[in-house]
Design a protein that fits this description.
The structure is a single chain. By secondary structure, this protein is of the alpha/beta class. The protein contains 10 helices and 5 strands, in the order βαβαααβααβαααβα. The chain has helices at residues 13-21, 38-47, 58-70, 73-77, 92-103, 107-119, 135-148, 156-159, 161-177, 189-203; strands spanning 2-6, 27-30, 86-89, 127-130, 183-185. 37% of the residues are buried.
């Protein structure tokens, strides 16, 4: 079972993943994979102003993040049709939401879908969870996190409050249309655990 936890910066994705793992046995993979992926590292350099005008292209940045996920394709595929649980801290929907927010055009959502699930062949998730944390609250958390930890300096996307709001709105549209599968919009670990239990019982 592949479950993705989606949300803007500071929404509480790591906290939710931790809460779920306290109740069920699950593996976790976070994207971008800054420690392991050259594509993710290049994207990080760009977001911190070290790659010239690379960030000016939403499509270029989306491609780097997509190639980062493609590098973990075999790792993710192991959980397809499995009774094991993989929690993904961000996945393909993050690319669709951020790209749509940057371009102010939802047409890029289809492009991301075709690129990652089509050409790159990434597995579709069984469940996508959008944390419904208000953007103002998430932004405050991200600022406080950066103040406490110098290694967590906010990048270009995180510093742009308008982008974060538009991304949240884009996530909501993805959830409403059932983009790439089933969605839950909640920050309640109990609701997610109930869904996991329900899905397990129907596959036994």
């Amino acid at each position: 079972m592949i479950i993705t936890i989606e949300g803007i910066d500071g929404a509480g994705k790591n906290t939710l993943v931790t809460a779920i793992r306290e109740q069920v046995e699950a593996d976790v993979l976070s994207f971008p994979r800054y420690d392991d992926s050259l594509h993710a590292q290049l994207a990080a350099d760009a977001l911190h102003g070290r790659m010239g005008d690379l960030t000016d292209s939403a499509y270029a940045m989306a491609t780097l993040f997509a190639l980062d996920r493609h590098g973990a394709k075999e790792q993710v595929e192991r959980y397809v049709d499995s009774d094991e649980i993989l929690l993904l801290d961000r996945y393909v929907a993050s690319n669709a939401a951020y790209s749509a927010a940057r371009l102010n055009d939802d047409a890029v959502m289809d492009w991301v879908h075709d690129l990652e699930f089509g050409r790159l062949g990434l597995p579709r998730p069984d469940l996508q969870v959008l944390l419904d944390t208000p953007p103002e609250t998430a932004s405050q958390r991200a600022r406080m996190r950066a103040e406490r930890d110098s290694a967590r300096e906010r990048d270009r996307y995180e510093r742009d409050a308008g982008l974060q709001q538009r991304t949240y709105d884009a996530y909501l549209r993805l959830a409403e249309q059932g983009w790439a599968g089933r969605w839950l919009v909640t920050a309640d670990a109990g609701v997610i655990l109930q869904e996991i239990t329900s899905r397990r019982s129907t596959t036994l």
